[in-house]
Specification:
It is a single-pass type II membrane protein. This is alpha-1,6-mannosyl-glycoprotein 6-beta-N-acetylglucosaminyltransferase. InterPro entries: GT18_cat (IPR026116), MGAT5_Glycosyltransferase (IPR052105). It is found in: Golgi apparatus membrane. By secondary structure, the protein is of the alpha/beta class. It folds into three domains: 64-246, no CATH class; 262-431, Rossmann fold; 464-572, no CATH class. It contains 22 helices and 21 strands. Strands 7, 8, 9, 10, 11, 12 and 13 form a seven-stranded mixed sheet that branches. It has a six-stranded parallel sheet with strand order 2-1-3-4-5-6. Strands 14, 15, 16, 17, 18 and 19 form a six-stranded mixed sheet that branches. α1 packs across α3 (29-38), α5 (76-87) packs across α7 and α7 (131-145) packs across α19 (436-449). The protein is globular, with a radius of gyration of 26 Å.
Length: 574
Amino acid sequence: PMCAEKVEFLRARWQSDPCYAFYGVDGSICSILTYLSHTEDFCPPKHGRDHFTLPWHPKPQFNTQKVLDTNQPEYYNPIIRLRCREYRVTLYLNWLLVRCVVLQVLLYPGALVGSAGQRFQAMLEQGGPLGELVQWADLSACLTVLGHNLTFSASQSHLHRSASLPLTFDLIYTDYHGLAHLRGAMGLAFQHYQCRFRVLDSFGTEPAFNLPGYAHRHGFSTLWGSWGLQPRQYMTMFPHTPDNSFLGFVSEEAAANVETLEDEFQPECYKKDRIAVVYGKQDYMWQGKSEYVKVISEEIETHATVYQLSGRRSNLPTFVKNHGLLTQHRFLQLLRKAKVFVGLGFPYEGPAPIEAIALGCAFLQPRFQPPHSSDNNDFYRGKPTTRQISSQHPYAEEFIGKPHVWTVDVTNKTDIQLALKAILSTEPFTPQEFTCMGMLERVHGYITHQSFCSNSVPTWPSEKVLRAHLGPLGQSCVSVCRRSSLLCEPALFHHLNIPQAFIRLGLGCSTTVEEANHLVPSYTPWGRHCGLQQEPLLFSCAGSDPSHRRLCPCRIQELLCKLPNNPLVVISNS
């Protein structure tokens, strides 16, 4: 119905933007009709006529049957359909990306396969973790919007058929469980094709844990890690370490706000009540938390969504109103009415606090003293990371902060009360990186610029953004760059891995040695020793040691990446 109107618009304005000329518009009615039928879908297609060939792919249609294999888990299909619907608002991005090469992509979440998948489904029905499933669904929807051809596999037998050689997939997204299955399916070809793998890794894998021989010799061997991949092939839920690629997810509310939904979903239909919702769907998470929750309940009505088995003794205090395990729909309804989302200390680093903040809740969480790590915490023990976790959700604490995030000493009643009094009216807030646009830009940037199948040094980002910093003793490059409001960029390490880099910083090296060490390039004041990296897989933003001053490749926290036919857009890693 808008075809005639659009034709008249382009007759008058076809020279207003150079992209029209790129798609062959020259002012003639024929070229305008071809553009409006082949590119923007405002006019009926001209069957049987191929006016010209252009280097673009058609807009993706949201037919998730094309995306999902028939052996998918039954609980996955409704989620991916929902996420695809929510992403539709970003379809206007597709005309920006029309010159992208269409890739053949295999999605294989090993944690959902076989007996492990059955356990996962049973846990979901009893309040188990949804974060990984949300991330897989968002990745599926994102790749669909970007126009790539997806195959979803959720069985090892289907994987064996899909991974037959020669491999026809340009990219394979999997997880740690899936890597083991892929190695079994591909045999000796596994190493040949491993540059095409992208590993969804919730908590991150630092380079020191990644290289098998090095990890074994230096005490970094764990149940995870030791796959010898490029560290940027590991894709995390939050930006834990710049050594890995931050994949992220999309906040539910960020997606819902851009859709025309039923009235009951609309945020303006909800009035904020003086209530708190506690983050903890399983009973064991409440153990030992009664005094903390009691302080909150004295100030504000407290609600929970805990799965409970009848006849079992519960850790849930009697003064808390429990709604039982809710669907995501009803859980979001409850959050829209609440003023505070209360963290109990576990689960760590999930997506729910980001969604609560986007719905106008302030997130109240425990401070960990001392910080939790693999040295003192069973959950992080064995994880391939040396991170020190200062709170339940370090990302929310550090990158969002007050007034949306309050981190308190849960044993200090006054600290809790002061935080609650300060939380009067909090506006909704969604970090750009957790919006539909943010994730699409990020994934598009990775697909366009990341290549691990070549021995050549990385060319993205450009050396122009490099800011070399020499850190103090004992600090990682993550800390060194952050101190200057910058971000450590591991792809730029090779520019500093030369003797001239030390000279430019005014350092005199009595010895310069190449070594395989996750702490180099670095400077050791005692003996004025300058260390250079011998093994590129060990370039690490995370490594630190009291005897080393790390030489760090820092850049601004927002990386500008030029997409086709588009001004500079932000791909945020911060």
